[in-house]
Design brief:
The complex is a heterodimer of chains A (about 120) and B (about 425). Chain A has about 120 residues and is mostly helical. Chain A is built from six helices and no strands. Chain B has about 425 residues and is α/β, with parallel strands linked by helices. In chain B, strands 5-2-1-9-21 form a five-stranded parallel beta sheet, covered by helices on one side. Chain B has a four-stranded parallel beta sheet with strand order 13-12-11-17, covered by helices on one side. In chain B, helix 8 (about 225-240) links the parallel strand 12 (about 215-220) and strand 13 (about 245-250). Classes of the chains: A mainly alpha (about 120), B alpha/beta (about 425).
């Protein structure tokens, strides 16, 4: 190994260490999952589509759309069923969206959000 | 051992927290954990994909390559034109992605090698990948007298940022009584209701500050997104359809060419001279998609809706405006939704597990005035008979016509909430 290659090797090891440190931030640690974490838990795929409008945390949130993360499961189910049936009051968009899901899907999404910490 | 990276590049890379191991030692598809994913493009699609791959499986190394240090969102850029927002209020940074462990590299991919599964960077480095996500957005089809050089004088403002600022300055400088002409593009294009929201926001600005001014739309198409709702709003707010209408919307216009010097639009039957001209060219997938062969013979990238993997090149996923994902529209929310499906598929593929059943949503708000919002929404699924993305029967649609003012005010509030949340979900 030539000198400059040695230097690069040492530097690469340092860079790798740096990268590892950077990844091991508290945020990254909290999301650390086993190697075979399920990617298709019930409600997860559909649940992710809600997060474009419904913030996942009340912290610093100044919007007008309700935060559903951590909401009681039954409350979410009842709301969604009312939206779907067209019986909810003061609704603007959720009546149109709720019609896209089966009762089983609504249950799964409600369970997904109810478990979520916010 | 050979290396194509200079010491200076290396130091710069290390400073950015760049994973250099595979790069320096040429270890192809080294799997320290769950694999290596490279994402090209830091817009709604690319940023969401990078973040969600890390959230779904933190053992996957994700590198996002994006030349710009900040991203100005197209949603909300019409609000800047209307004077409702400043450009810095719709400008995102990449710090949030880095907190999720995404390695953000401000560089440009000059070449993709699908056989070696590697990308070459403008600065000289090479990165290998197990899965590549290409989210380059749109490029323009220059022509009819409108070129890249002309766009510095006559903005398209269809990629937000300096172009938005330029158009806003021109509108501010225009004297009262002037004429603003907008030429919307042919289908398909980014943000279908965008031109009509732009007309609304400029009308709002004129009504407040330059009430003698006129807006002329010269649209090559016969209809536009949310047309009924926009026209209802224009009638209520901007005198549309009366002699005093601020807006004059022409459809099925044959655009022959523009004369940039005189800001004149030449159509099949007439010539229209503007004080401020906004020409939005026809569109195609971003350059790297074409250079890589992801578009085939067309303008956009065909994909398998279950994974967003290219049907032309294995191992490469194309999301956002560049992909053919219809009936999903070319919108920021759709790109975010596609990215999440793509992220879940990539995590599954890297674990050799079945790809989960996808689901998508698009919600799209437009402001007709600061307190007057309208929306369209849809839920999408895979049609298992055809394998194609399709609308869920009975779901979605436009907000109702003739809704009371309270409804429109709520939709305007939700539009602004939408912007806050979708941007936090994408870059936060």
């Amino acid at each position: 190994m030539k000198n400059h290659e040695k230097w690069l090797h040492v530097a690469a090891v340092l860079a790798a260490a740096y990268a590892t440190t950077a990844c091991a931030s508290p945020e990254a640690k909290q999301t650390q999952a086993p190697a075979h974490r399920s990617v298709d838990a019930p409600g997860e795929v559909i649940g992710r589509t809600c997060a474009g409008c419904h913030a996942l945390s009340k912290k610093n949130y100044k919007g007008f759309v309700p935060v559903i993360a951590g909401m009681d499961k039954e409350k979410i189910v009842q709301k969604m069923r009312a939206f779907k049936a067209g019986t909810a009051k003061d609704v603007t968009i959720m009546d149109r969206i709720a019609k896209g899901y089966s009762d089983a899907e609504i249950d799964a999404v409600a369970a997904y959000y109810a478990k979520m910490k916010h | 051992m050979t290396t194509n990276i200079s010491r200076r590049d290396f130091i710069r890379g290390a400073g950015a927290g760049f994973a250099l191991g595979p790069l320096l030692f040429g270890v192809s598809r080294a799997r320290a954990g769950g694999g290596d994913v490279v994402v090209i493009g830091g817009g709604f699609g690319g940023a969401t994909a990078a973040k969600y791959i890390r959230l779904i499986d933190p053992s996957i190394q994700v590198t996002l390559i994006e030349p710009a240090k900040t991203y100005v969102t197209c949603p909300g850029s019409n609000w800047v034109l209307g004077g409702l927002r400043k450009i810095d209020q719709i400008t995102m940074t990449y710090d949030g992605l880095e907190r999720h462990g995404v390695k953000v590299v401000h560089d440009m991919v000059t070449h993709v090698d699908p056989d070696k599964r590697s990308v070459k960077l403008k600065s000289g480095g090479t990165l290998s990948y197990d899965r590549l996500v290409v989210s380059p957005g749109i490029d323009f089809k220059w022509g009819k007298g409108y070129t890249a050089a002309v766009s510095h004088e006559i903005p398209h403002a269809w990629k937000a940022g300096a172009q938005t600022t330029l158009l806003r300055k021109q509108l501010e400088a225009m004297p009262d009584g002037g004429t603003f002409i907008i030429v919307p593009p042919n289908n398909p294009f980014r943000c279908p209701p965008g031109p009509a929201e732009r007309i609304s926001m400029v009308a709002h600005y004129f009504k407040k500050h330059k009430p003698k001014s006129k807006i002329i739309a010269l649209d090559p198409k016969g209809k536009f997104s949310k047309q009924g709702l926009f026209i209802e709003g224009w009638k209520k707010l901007y005198g549309y359809g009366t002699d005093a209408s601020m807006i004059d919307y022409h459809q099925n216009v044959e655009i022959e060419e523009i004369d940039p010097k005189t800001k004149t639009v030449v159509t099949g039957v007439d010539e229209y001279k503007a004080d401020v001209l906004n020409f939005i060219p026809d569109q195609k997938a971003g350059a790297i998609a074409h250079a890589t062969g992801l578009t085939g013979d067309g303008d956009w990238c065909p994909i398998d809706g279950r994974t967003f993997e290219s049907t032309l090149i294995k191992g490469i996923h194309v999301i956002g405006d560049a992909s053919i994902a219809k009936p999903l529209p070319k919108s920021g929310y759709a790109a975010n939704s596609e990215a999440k499906v793509c992220a879940a598929a990539i995590a599954a593929l890297l674990q050799d597990r079945p790809v989960p059943e996808p689901s998508w949503v698009n919600t799209c708000y437009s402001l007709v005035a600061p307190d007057y919002g309208i929306s369209v929404a849809m839920v999408y699924e895979i049609d298992h008979a055809t394998g194609k993305i399709s609308k869920v029967q009975g779901a979605g649609g436009l907000s109702p016509a003739d809704a009371p003012p309270k409804f429109r005010r709520n939709e305007a509030l939700y539009a602004q909430s939408w912007w806050m949340t979708i941007t936090a979900d994408t870059w936060g």
